[in-house]
Structure formats: C-alpha cells, structure tokens
Design goal:
Elements lengths: L1 E6 L3 H16 L3 E2 L8 E6 L4 H16 L3 E6 H6 L3 H4 L5 E3 L7 H13 L33 E3 L18 E5 L1 E2 L10 H5 L3 E2 L2 H13 L4 E5 L20 H10 L6 E5 L8 H9 L6 E3 L7 H7 L5 H14 L4 E8 L6 H14 L3 E6 L17 H24 L5 E9 L6 E6 L4 E5 L12 E9 L3 E6 L2
Parallel strand pairs: 1-2, 1-3, 3-4, 4-5, 5-6, 7-10, 10-11, 12-13, 13-14, 17-19
Antiparallel strand pairs: 8-9, 15-16, 15-18, 16-17, 18-19
Helix pairs in contact: 12-13
Bound molecules: S-adenosyl-L-homocysteine (SAH) and iron/sulfur cluster (SF4).
Length: 470
C-alpha cells in the first residue's frame, strides 16, 4: 500500500510519524510521492490549542472526501475518543499517541481487505461487499468497507520506538513519554498519559544504531525532559539526577557530535546539569525553557511551580556559564484574568532574560483542563495585540543578541542549500541559530552534516550570515 503521513504539532509528533513511517516501510508498504499517488493518508494530529486540532481534523476530512483510506493518529484522537468518528464520518482508523505501534498491523489489515475486493475503478469506493458493512447515512459517500478501528491504548508504550532512522544526519529520540506536571491550561497530560522514562539501555542502543547510520546530531525529546528517570526506574545506577547521567553516556557514543534536548523546566537547571555543559562539548549550549508568563500571579494560577525570580535565576546561571548560551522560550498571552500589568511583566521578563527566540501562543481553553473552568476573559483582539507586541519585541531583541556574534567564528553543521538563495549553504550553530554562508566558487554538492567554521559577517533577528573561515 502506498502511504503518506501529514504531521501537525510538536517534535514529539514528528518523531512519532518518523517511527510509523519506518515501521510501515519495514512491513513492505511504500511511501507515496504525493497525495494523488497515495492509497492511504495518515494525519498525525495535535490538540494543544483548538486551532491546531481543527487544522488536523480539517485535513483528515479532505482526505476522506478525496476517497483515500484515511487514518488519524496523535493527540486529537485521545481527546475525542469515540466521537472522532462523529467528527469524521468515513474515517478508517484512529490511534492515540501511546498506541501508534499498532498502525502497521492496522494498515496491513486494511490492505488485505481492500485487495480481497474487486479492483478499484477510478471514482469507485474501495470495499468488499461480503464483509461487515456499515450503511452510510443518506447523503454521505457509499463506503462499503468501514473498518472504524479505534485504539486508545491508555498507558501503552508504543512498540518499536527504536525502529527508525530517517536517513539524515539528525534524529529525534524520545526519552520521556507523557507528562505529570498538570499545568492548569494544558491538555498534554490527558492525551499523552503519565510520565514514563524509557530504559536508558534502549535509548543508548537506539542512538548507537543511529550513529552507525550516519546520524551526528540527536535531539532528546520529552515534555519535561529533565524529569527523565525520576518517576520510574530507567535502569541507570541509583542517582539523584538521572538526566545529566544519561547525557554523559550519550556523549560517549562515537559518531554523535551534537546532543540537544527539549523541553526543559527551570527547576531542572541544577549544578549537575550545568557541570555536563562544562564537561561535554557535544552537549549544545541551547536550552528551550518555556516560561509561559512573567507575572508571579499568573505563574501561580498556571501551576508552573516557579516564580519570576527563580526563572530568571536559572537563565542567569546559563549565561554565567557562557554569555552566548542560547535560551528560547514559549509564552502564553491572554490567560484568564491576565491584566495589562501582568502582560507588561511578561514583556519585561522576556527583555531581562534576553531570549534568543520565543514562541508566543494565544491562550486557548482546552476541555478538561483546570483553566477551562475560568472565564476566557481576554478578548481575541487583545490576545492578538499582545501577541504582536511580543513578536515585535523579539525582533528587536533577536537582532541585538545576534549582532553580538558578528566577527566571531561559529561551528555550524551544514543542513543543505538555503531555501531563499540556492547559492548559499544553510545550517545551525550549537545555539540552534540559523546560519547561511556563500558557496565557494566551484564548490559542488551540499556537504550534509559536515561541521564548518563560519565567520559571522551580518546579523538579522532570525538568521546569521557569514563566510567559511579559512
Ligand atoms: N511540555 C512543554 C510544553 C508543551 S505544549 C513545556 O511545558 O515546556 C507547547 C506549548 O504550547 C506550551 O509551552 C505552551 O506555551 C503552549 N500551550 C499549551 N497549552 C496551551 C493552551 N491551552 N493555550 C495556548 N497555548 C498553550
Ligand atoms: Fe503541558 Fe505543563 Fe506538561 Fe508542558 S509541563 S506538557 S505545559 S502540563
């Protein structure tokens, strides 16, 4: 069967889609080159904000309308449960995040039921008349083979986490599934289940295999990744701080040149973690440290378990270690009851922290979360205004931060040709900053994954421009 996967949402979803792709390929299915070419389309959905969920559901609806075998995976499935089939009549299967390991079996069963049927003429439904049938409601398409498989697999740990190698020199590796933090606004714990740390042995074996396939840069994923090994035994020697220990082990793997991880909670920026950055040059000096708000009142309401002062203390410890340590963040604007003064505190915190980059989200009430019980009282226009203000601040600040790097030499891993200018290479430095530089005359072929020293000549808010240092 020819399949295509469309992914919405975070890096976790990207990683899950990669794993599903690898498993489907291993099961003998083929990757389609376009939607037209695909027999089956799988949508990996996000539900963290309502708009994100709507996008994924909308796409799945389009695929059903274009008569593809359509499957939905990811966070929206868990949130909607059985209702997913009401939202998407004609959907063939739906699989929650912790159950994605079951997808190859489902796709193969669909394939055999389709291939046992009469060949599909164009415009005709796929289906078998002799099999279990669900009569479609009047006015909907006549889909005879409606399988409707739903796998919610509550706390199931997806099989074959280690099954993939996307083929490039960069790879995501999930180390921690789920989340136990229960921030007041967040639906993630409901849809991704309890925190579970994968056994360290399994993670190390996966990264060793990736390194053998040419992977040089790994990004370790977890919702609150610094909590790795705290809730369940991950097989490391009993240590108070398993995550720094895991980092040191990964740094010892031959072939791995860069280690990144995301997301972090400020409480996890400990002496032991700071010592890893001092000792292991492979561990990139970049931390994505979502702050959400700069107002103590709102932070308390969100249940974030740190104050503004504690957060800023964590940032200054990183910058004491290295003034160019890149710190990026997530912020929510328009949380229930967020006043103008609360917002101004967020603005000033962002300036004090000197974020290298930030992602701003407009508050969206999610069913079942604690904050959904509060009035969503900041108007859409005001949320938008606050959003634009923070983005404009970030432009100015990003330019200031990046300008400090002009004249310095950064080590960059080449990721390919620049999208905007094919005469340039593009890559990232350890701080995850995008760097582009001119090809040398006569230079051919992008040296994917090669570490290059680039002298920075020009800075913009989101990008650095340089030249290969001789
Ligand atoms: N585990 C990560 C965040 C995962 S969700 C962490 O805590 O660091 C990614 C981001 O989406 C969050 O950091 C938050 O800024 C945003 N987000 C989560 N729920 C939201 C909601 N209900 N409305 C708006 N933004 C939200
Ligand atoms: Fe959501 Fe908070 Fe968990 Fe992040 S730490 S996934 S924001 S509950």
């Amino acid at each position: 069967m020819k399949f295509l996967i469309h992914t919405y949402g975070c890096q976790m979803n990207v990683r899950d889609s990669e794993a599903v792709e690898a498993m489907l390929l291993a099961a003998g299915h083929e990757k389609a080159v376009s939607e037209d070419d695909a027999d089956a389309v799988i949508i990996n959905s996000c539900t963290v904000r309502q708009k994100a969920e709507e996008k994924a559901i909308g796409k799945a609806g389009n695929m059903i309308a274009s008569r593809k075998i359509t499957g939905l995976m990811g966070c929206a499935v868990k949130r909607l449960g059985e209702d997913v089939f009401k939202r998407l009549p004609g959907l063939d299967f739906a699989v929650a995040p912790r159950a994605f390991g079951l997808i190859p079996k489902i796709v193969s069963s669909l394939e055999s039921s389709v291939s046992r049927c009469a060949p599909r003429a164009s415009g005709q439904e796929h289906g078998c008349s002799g099999e279990e049938t669900l009569s479609p409601p009047p006015g909907t398409r006549n889909r005879r083979h409606a399988t409707r498989i739903l796998e919610l697999g509550d706390d199931l740990v997806p099989g074959s986490m280690a099954a993939h190698c996307a083929g490039g020199f960069q790879a995501f590796v999930t180390v921690l599934l789920g989340c136990d933090n229960r921030c007041s606004y967040c639906i993630v714990p409901d849809v991704r289940g309890h925190e579970y740390s994968r056994p360290a042995k399994e993670i190390i074996a996966e990264i060793e295999a990736l390194a053998r396939h040419g992977v040089k840069e790994v990004t370790l994923l977890g919702q609150s990744v610094l909590r790795y090994g705290i809730r369940n035994d991950c097989g490391l020697p009993k240590t108070a701080e398993p995550f720094p220990f895991l980092l040191r082990q990964i740094a010892g793997i031959d072939g791995i040149e860069r280690i990144r991880f995301t997301s972090a909670h400020p409480k996890g920026v400990t002496d032991e973690l700071l010592q890893v950055w001092r000792d292991c040059p492979k561990v990139c000096r970049h931390l994505h440290l979502p702050v959400q708000s700069g107002s103590d009142r709102i932070l308390a309401a969100m249940g974030r378990r740190y104050t503004r002062a504690e957060y800023l203390e964590s940032v200054s410890r990183l910058r004491e270690l290295d003034p160019e340590f890149a710190v990026t963040t997530d912020v929510i604007v328009g949380y229930p009851g967020e006043t103008h003064d609360d917002f101004e505190q967020t603005r000033s915190l962002m300036q004090e922290a000197g974020f290298d980059n930030s992602f701003v989200f407009k508050y969206s009430p999610r069913p079942g979360t604690r904050s959904a019980l509060l009035p969503d009282d900041v108007t859409t226009e005001e949320k938008e205004r606050r959003n634009q203000t923070l983005l404009a601040d970030q432009e100015t600040r990003g330019l200031e931060r990046n300008s400090r790097l002009v004249g310095t030499i950064r080590e960059v891993l080449a990721e390919g040709t620049s999208k905007r200018n094919p005469e340039r290479w593009s890559g990232r430095d350890g701080g995850n900053r995008i760097v582009v530089w001119d090809r040398r005359q006569g230079e051919r072929g992008a040296r994917l994954g090669e570490a290059v020293k680039i002298r920075i000549a020009q800075a913009h808010a989101q990008i650095l421009i340089g030249e290969a240092a001789r």
